């Protein structure tokens, strides 16, 4: 991992479990879906280990010809649960405020459906911080594909930020976020309590790792 980087001109964030704690809602909605589809339920640990891609990329392989029925069941359950259980992660609001006041371009690249992503950002009052919120289905292809990053940077939207490159930091909690950053040529920043595993490092090592958002905020203040 790189020891130091220059201050970013733009910061893109994953959403779920990077800025907000979503595991409980995702887990509950998935198990409602599994029950309806006669699939065995997952444990919470299995959910956290397996959920990475968007539904349009993962459900066809999981449910075959019935994947659209499963998708409807999942989103019906998620829509009932997500706002009342939405929990910002410690330090998230402060970090977004710090970056916005410093004039950084801010965006989100999330494999949560764009409609739900924007509802959640508005519910938290964070929509004012972001130049662009790009959720699943908003771009031609979802994370980890380059198109999703380009959309979050405003390409073709009239809200253009800097082009994807080393001056753009991509902040996330999972291996898919690091891969996405690499696919777009951005700096990959891992934020979670656990350091990257050997398996993750072999696929795509992050440039920097922080145990939490407050540590990332302090690092940025020092740059």
Name some characteristics of this structure:
alpha/beta, single chain, 223 residues, HAD-like_sf, EC 3.1.3.18, two-stranded antiparallel ribbon, hydrolase activity, 8 strands, Rossmann fold, six-stranded parallel β-sheet
Brief write-up:
This protein is an alpha/beta fold and 223 residues long.
Structure notes:
The protein has 223 residues and is an alpha/beta fold. It has 2 domains: 10-21 and 87-222, 3-Layer(aba) Sandwich (Rossmann fold); 23-81. The protein has 10 helices and 8 strands. It has helices at residues 23-36, 44-50, 55-63, 67-81, 92-101, 114-124, 146-152, 175-184, 198-203, 213-222; strands at residues 10-13, 20-21, 87-88, 105-113, 132-136, 168-172, 187-191, 208-210. The strands form 2 sheets. It has a 6-stranded parallel sheet, with helices on both faces. Strands 2-3 form a two-stranded antiparallel ribbon. The model has no long low-confidence stretch (mean pLDDT 93). One of its GO terms (molecular function) is hydrolase activity. This is phosphoglycolate phosphatase.
* Mean pLDDT value: 93
CATH topology of the largest domain, by name, is Rossmann fold
- Which radius of gyration do the C-alpha atoms yield? 17 Å
Q: What is the makeup of the main sheet?
A: 6 strands, parallel
Q: Which architecture of the largest domain per CATH?
A: 3-Layer(aba) Sandwich
Q: Can you identify the CATH superfamily of the largest domain?
A: HAD superfamily/HAD-like
Give the fraction of residues assigned to helices. Answer: 40-55%
How many domains is the backbone divided into?
2
- Strand fraction equals 15-25%
Oligomer: single chain
Which CATH class of the largest domain is shown?
Alpha Beta
Major sheet: arrangement of strands: 5-4-1-6-7-8
């Amino acid at each position: 991992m790189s020891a130091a980087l220059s201050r970013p001109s733009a910061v893109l964030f994953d959403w779920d479990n990077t800025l907000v704690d979503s595991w409980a809602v995702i887990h509950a909605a998935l198990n409602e879906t599994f029950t309806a589809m006669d699939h065995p339920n997952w444990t919470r640990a299995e959910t956290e280990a397996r959920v990475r891609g968007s539904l349009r990329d993962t459900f066809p392989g999981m449910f075959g010809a019935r994947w659209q029925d499963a998708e409807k069941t999942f989103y019906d359950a998620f829509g009932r649960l997500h706002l009342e259980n939405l929990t910002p992660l410690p330090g998230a609001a402060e970090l977004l405020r710090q970056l916005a006041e410093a004039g950084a371009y801010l965006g989100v690249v999330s494999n949560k459906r764009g409609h739900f992503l924007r509802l959640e950002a508005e519910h938290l009052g964070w929509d004012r911080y972001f130049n662009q919120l790009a959720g699943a289905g908003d771009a031609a292809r979802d994370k980890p594909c380059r198109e999703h990053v380009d959309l979050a940077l405003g390409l073709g939207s009239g809200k253009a930020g800097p082009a994807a490159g080393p001056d753009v930091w991509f902040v996330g909690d999972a291996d898919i976020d690091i891969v996405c950053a690499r696919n777009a040529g951005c700096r990959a920043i891992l934020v979670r309590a656990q350091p990257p595993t050997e398996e993750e490092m072999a696929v795509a090592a992050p440039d920097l790792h922080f145990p939490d958002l407050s540590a990332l905020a302090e690092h940025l203040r020092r740059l």
